Task: structure prediction
Amino acid sequence: RQNILLVEDNPGDARLIRELLAEGSGTSFVISEVNRLAHGLEQFADQSFDLVLLDLSLPDSTGLDTLRRFQATAPDVPVIVLTGLNDEGSAIQAVRDGAQDYLVKGQIDGQQIVRAIRYARERHRMVLQIRDLSLVDDLTGLHNRRGFAVLAREVVKRAARTGTGLVVTFVDLDGMKHINDY
Ligand SMILES: [Mg+2]
Result:
């Protein structure tokens, strides 16, 4: 069972997508449905999802801003953008911005949507794996400079959001020459 968050303000489109997911056999989906970006973001406070189907045109957010705001709050979940025919240009830009795929409403059947979800999750998993590799020093398994920058940014953001302080500790290790030379 896969947990899917569907963010779609058009009830007809939402129903259609539910039907397509039900029709694509072999996988069962648990679908949580919201019609506002803000409601979608709230969902992440108390549960996790395997994938998000995100309509870009919502009452409280439109266009690529919808994707960016979503990713700022939930960066670790794969997103497939749902689009109408008329915004295919921004759908391609959405993929550049980190969406795993885009589906044109009314042009997709059940098998295709299930397959798109499967591949999107797989690609996203690989992206996260590569990102993790790029943040860690191979030899020591410690975070490298880039890893520190990424972590520090998150911690600073969280501190600002919660109004708490933070501490940075520098540790300088001497006497490592015999290991460095090894
Ligand atoms: Mg819409």
About this structure: The chain has two domains: 2-135, 145-181.
